[in-house]
Amino acid sequence: MLSNLKKKYYPYWQLYVFLLFPVLYIIIFRYVPMAGVQLAFKKFDINKGIWGSPWIGFDNFVKFFNSYVFWRVITNTLRLSAYSIAAAFPFPIVFALALNSVSNLRFKKMVQTITYMPHFISVVVIVGMLMQIFHPIVGLYGTFSKMFIEGMPRDIFASPNAFTHLYIWSGVWQGFGWGSIIYLATLTAVNPELHEAAEIDGANRFQRVISIDLPALLPTVIIMLILRVGRLMNVGFEKVFLMQNSLNIRLSEVISTFVYKQGLAAGIGGSNFAYATAIGFFNSIINLIFIVTVNKISNKVSSTSLW
Amino acid sequence: MYKKKILTTCSFILCIVMVLLSLNGCKTAKDTESTVKPDIGLETATQEKDAAEWPKDPNLNSPGVLPICKNTVKLSVGVPSKPALVEDWKTNLFTQELEKRGNFDLEFVEYSADEMEQKIELQVMAGGSELPDIIMGNFRLDRITEYGQAGMFVPLNDYYDNLSHFITLSMKNVDIDCLKYITSYDGNIYGMYRIMVSLNNTYSGCRILLYSPWLQNLGLEMPETTDDFLNVLRAFKNNDPNKNGEKDEIPMMGFNDSMFSNYIRAMMTPFVYTQANYWTIENGKIGVAFNTEEWREGLRYSKQLVTEGLLSPLSFTQDRAQLVAIASKDPATVGTIPHFSTSFLGANDTKRVEYDIVPPLEGPTGRREQITSPTQPNIAMVITKNCKTPEAAFMLGDLMCEEELSIWQRWGRKGIDWKVPGPDEKSVYDHLGYKAILNPIAAWGVLQNTWWAELGPYIIDARYPAGQVVSDNPLDHNIPIGRGIESQIKYANHNPVTGLIYNIEEQEVMSELHSTIITYVNEHFTRFIMGDLDLDKDWDHYLGEFNKMGLDKVIAATQSAYDRMNK
Question: Quick one: which of A240, A293, B407, B495 has the most CB atoms within 10 Å?
Fold first, then answer.
């Protein structure tokens, strides 16, 4: 047994050392903190700490399910997330396919740099820019509309529906360049012989994209989609929170902002860590169910899957 | 096959590591439990001695006699580190003065300023053995109570009764029951407080500023009633008060943050008593303002302002920077701003001194009052269980509350950092009886090594902040406040429900339900006045939802907290 192990693993020990660091990283920063999830089933007492607080079973969850805002935050989260997948997911793919067909290398590089740039702008700055640009009096939007209509134009930030669109499409603008990197990388792996053969057979550029590039891209697309669906219940906190106001809050209050208000920012009575943990945990379980289901379906249909 | 084996081995190792780690976690948790036990040995020891003589520590002189300690007492002091406004705690002139007057040797333990709260929490959770003798900072009462009950901090009730000398002296000029606001619900006092009684802040919570040159341009009077106010706004809108021939005036505009405190409170008060959390009080019974018929009348009024184009709907969505951009334009385009001061306008903007305070408006039923937010003390210092000489530590805090040293903490040394004003120098509030008492020289907000930048406990009564000499700057934003605050004082209602201290059970109810309700109220406030919801059709539904949200529980919890504090 031992000699067998030695024979199998010893010759590659350097590789295992390489493996060790990421594994350790994951254990220390991903698995160990998971122990804190127990807080969801406890009544947190700061003097006793996480481990010493008394168990209260599912009380925190029941509280959330019975809470006044439960359905509101769930539907808002799902709406934003589903819309975001529908709008933002196809963009990088189409963009990568198009960019891959560009033959002028300098132009290609320039386009790449320009489209990656927004990714590096902080969310706070982005929201600040949005508010400046779409201000009906001092903003670009206000200045332009003054040329065409009398009086003040509609205030975009006051409309809940406009909030949704603005949130999603500014996200698309910010993320599609960066999101296309992984698809571009996959496309460079396509065997050029396939393209040469297709060219000789008289296929035009568009036909080649449809019949060669797209099928090559499909497994990556599916994996990315599965991963994305696994984050269905996660709507990024900062941007929603920054864009919130009392006029759009009925569509903009999502799980993460609610958790923040309950868990950390609660004014009178102090913060409620256990409750916030329970909500976060509930969130993760729903995500897990989604990712497992989608993975199963994808495995059945296209035989591509995460595991 | 091969791959699978690696995987299984890896996951096996992972499992073992996890189990080991969690075992380890259990162990440390147990260790903490044993050490967290309240350390009450100290007090029982002191109680055995004769109770008549304070201080019990033979090394200390009686209260009021300096130096405090006969032999030098060493104390470790927890303070926030840079980037505070203090260069070096140890060599700071104020530190040296304290050490000299009290015969102390202060040693500073610095907490990184932005994670001070978390660091202290960690130390508490680890049993508290690493806490310094005393900690200076900003503390929340509910935290202090929790830690105090866990035995981390020394209860100071007896010390307040028997050892406070300078505190008693300084409090003679302060008409506020400070201890009431820092007493935990269990009756213990775990902290020493700081207070600076501010005339302006008492009235700044609901204030509307009006651009008075427009009144003169149109020959109008300062509005006194809600109807007057409506007419003034209409005139601002239609009669071109800024005389540029364009209809670019915005009669009233605010921004998202201040709207909810300033606008709602100032514009609803003519209709119903509107305190910061919307509590109402009648014959000792707590209620809320936002489910009353009067609230609906107030909403109707605000709705009229929006419908007639007098109150800009942007007030609910734009941020401060955008309001500043609009309000800074010349000639002025914004008539009234619900805000506490004009300090947001540029330093060279003459409009800073042209906005005047609108007096509290009289409502249709004759209601006319100004809601105040009386200054409340903050907990500035705690003495931890590790302190071997808690009496000396308390007397150090007491010394810091001495009048001159209190002022030193905010304005620096007398004669050097601030001067006694000459006979012809005046304060902004001179006409209200606040004679000029202090002429600041040293700049506030810069890195220095003279004072403690308001960190420690101190007691500064209303004469000092209000008695500052008017600066030479003719555009000082305090000038219009001094001019108009009298009208607010005249109608002040000095009995608001404020500074309530909840116990654990009440806190739970509040933290779960209260923020949801306030969010709901603010959301519906805007939706009703913007016409998104109808004040006739949707009102009953609006009221009905409060039952589902548990408003009765919130009121009951607040009632019991109020009763406990006002027995």
Answer: A240
Distance separating alpha carbons of residues A259 and A279, to the nearest angstrom = 7
Of B22, B32, B319, nearest to A35 by CB-CB distance is B22
Whether the CA torsion B441, B442, B444, B445 is positive or negative: it is positive
Instruction: Name chain A contacts of B520, Cβ cutoff 8 Å.
Output: 68
Which tens digits make up the pLDDT trace of A52-69? 888 888 888 988 888 888
Tokens representing residue B551 in the block:
């408003």
- Which class for A63: exposed (0-12), middle (13-18), buried (19 or more C-beta within 10 A)? middle
User: How far A146 CA sits from the closest chain B CA (Å)?
Assistant: 12
Q: Give the CA count within 13 Å in the CB-facing half-sphere of B303.
A: 18
Rounded CA-CA distance A162/A96 in Å is: 29
Distances (CA, A) of B249 to B327, B329, B482: 10, 11, 27
Please report the ipTM that was assigned to this predicted complex: 0.76
Listed in sequence order, the residues at least 6 apart from A118 whose beta carbon sits closer than 8 Å to its beta carbon are: A126, A173, A174, A175, A177
What's at B287, amino acid-wise? G
- Which of the residues B30, B515, B551 would you substitute to probe the A interface, choosing the one with the greatest number of A C-beta atoms within 10 Å? B515
What is the value of pTM for the model shown? 0.78
Number of CB atoms found within 10 A of residue B258's CB: 18
Report residue B43's pLDDT band, with 50, 70 and 90 as the boundaries: very low
Tell the residue number behind the tokens 């590096």, with chain if given: A120
B448 CB-near residues (< 8 Å, 6+ apart): B85, B86, B87, B442
**Record: contact A157-B317, CB cut-off 8 A:** yes
Query: CA of B263, closest CA in chain A: separation in Å?
Result: 14
